[in-house]
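Example 3.2
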Amino acid sequence: MIPVVWYCQFSVLIGTGLRFVAVVIPFVAVFEAFYDRHSFHPRPTENYQSDRCRRKL
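Structure, written as tokens:
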């Protein structure tokens, strides 16, 4: 049998972890959208990389 104290600590740990994830995920999404919109160096797309490879060939 699992002691009740372990169960309480485990449930509290899971609760804080879920709360942390619920807070961090929207923050990361907003940060990524803001970074993409205001980035001066756009992320290299597949077309860009293929064009570069074609130039090398």
